């Protein structure tokens, strides 16, 4: 039977002595494509950090599948200018996704190099392996970072505002790629996005956050809900 990859039961997350996200319940199953939407400051990044294990729950229960605990979760952070100028080859950037599994060994193993190569192939960037990361286009950089994230695990990919900074053609290319990973390769997707007009056609579940969960359900249920109607406005 397929076990959930991540389960939150009435979970709270916060900083020091205040909670930013309260009473969140959700489940990410193999094959899911869950988008988290909400205004700025509603706690989306905090929830992601919690699921990634970067901050601990202050209440409730968070379950993460054993296989993800061992390998780490594939994560595509928001890109900062410093990351965009990273002086490394594509291959080095992708391989660094294996760091979570590497422990104290000083060199990458043969198996890790094979995983990195397979993921570069999967993302169509194998011929760019010796190119300098900072010379790539926005779309190629993003493919490299997705390949990197898949080196940790190909069960769940977490993306935080992934389309910011991409041009319209690269955005459509990105959605196509993610959909393929999700539908053909059963990679579960968890994405924070403001791009509701597009994600409504991509995701299967939506969670709308404003400190607590305002809505959690299927895309179809979201379209019918007061939140969906308000948030979607004239976007469709
Ligand atoms: P979103 O991703 O939806 O914009 P965030 O999770 O980034 O929301 O922020 C939610 C709230 O948590 C904000 O009020 C923000 O100031 C606060 N916050 C975010 N990060 C930290 C932090 N590291 N320390 C303390 N407060 C934080």
TrEMBL record:
TM stretches of this protein: none
Family, as annotated: Belongs to the ABC transporter superfamily.
Boundaries of every ABC transporter domain copy: 6-236
Region forming the signal peptide: none
PROSITE patterns: ABC_TRANSPORTER_2
Keyword Transport attributed: yes
Gene Ontology MF term list: ATP binding; ATP hydrolysis activity
Protein name, as recorded: ABC transporter ATP-binding protein
Keywords, ordered alphabetically: ATP-binding, Nucleotide-binding, Transport
